[in-house]
Amino acid sequence: MRIETVAVHAGTRVDPATGAVTPAIHPSTTFERDVDGSYPRGFVYSRNSNPNREALEECLAALEGGQASAAFASASAATSAIFLALQPGDHVVAPLDAYHGTLRLLRETFTRWGLETTFVDMSDLDAARAAIRANTRLVWVETPSNPLWKISDVVAIGELARRVGARYVCDNTTATPVLQSPLRLGADLVLHATTKYLGGHGDVLGGAVVTRARDEFFERIRAVQASGGAVPSPFDCWLVRRGIRTLPYRVRAHSENALRVATFLHSHARVEAVHYPGLASHPAHDVARRQMTAFGGMLSVQVKGDRARAMDVAAKLRVFTRATSFGGTESLVEHRASIEGAGTRTPENLLRLSIGLEHSDDLIDDLGQALL
Ligand SMILES: *Cc1c(COP(=O)(O)O)cnc(C)c1O
Question: Which of 63, 187, 234, 280 measures 20 to 30 Å from 214, CA to CA?
Answer without folding.
Answer: 234
